Amino acid sequence: MSAADKDAVEAFRRDVVEPSMRELVIVYFTAEWCGPCKALGPIIDKVAGEYAGKGVRLAKLDVDKNQFIAAQFQVRSVPTVYAMFQGQLVADLGQARTESAMKATLDQILRQLPVAGEAQSVEAEIEPLIAMGERVLGEGDAERALSIFEQLAEMAPEHAAVAGGRARALVALGRVEEAEAALATLSEDAAKAPEVARARAAIALAAEATPVDDLSALRAQVEAAPDDLSLRYDLAGGLMAAGERDAAADHLLNIIQTERDWNDGAARQRLLKLFEVVGLEDPWVSQQRRRLSAILFG
Fold this sequence. Notes:
Layout: H1 3-17, E1 24-30, H2 35-50, E2 56-62, H3 67-72, E3 80-85, E4 88-92, H4 99-112, H5 118-138, H6 142-155, H7 160-172, H8 176-184, H9 188-191, H10 194-208, H11 215-224, H12 229-241, H13 245-258, H14 266-278, H15 283-297
Helix pairs in contact: 5-6, 5-7, 6-7, 7-8, 7-10, 8-10, 10-14, 11-12, 12-13, 13-14, 13-15
């Protein structure tokens, strides 16, 4: 091994292998004369910059200046892109030639490996606080839940679970326009998250679930005319607005059982929105889904 090769190996150990003990290193073999590299390079630069907080580091190696290293990795063409963690190659990123594909691949890798980045540290810190906010919101204390989520938003303003929880707390307090405005400021990636979709479902449901001044009177009307599905549907909306999800689900299921396609399936659509707002993994939703399945397929 020549002195130049020894220097290259030492630089690779210092700049790639050692950082990979805690970070995910994108090892990008490139060359000045490489045409495809000119297209891929800016994409890798952009994605690596955006993922730096998640513990991703970029190491560029010119194959002409690092022939010994390139030979060890059996690089036969450029661009060649690998992901390294704890000194081992964990993925070939060569097929991820677009920004979205690169991000999707990195997201998948980061979910599987204990990469130590700033984002992961923040996640570990706020995860129990998010769970607390969700529990408080589920117990009906929207004011306290909002306070928790707003404090979390100062720490992680683009965190989808935080943004979604805050928006749902605002909806529970009747501040629907504020909730819509808050979600509108999120980045494109955060806006696609399921937690944000759940919040949007809460906003849509709030628009449908109109508060009723006198639920007792409406209940009496439904009891007097049990076959009037329109009245029953209105009562379900009023019950949802009042936070009485059990009774609301009962009336919506009653409509579905009586006339499945009533009003173009409005009762089923409203019930599914209610499921999404409560949370598809919630035991209550699982119970109501079984009731719905028994009606639809029993």
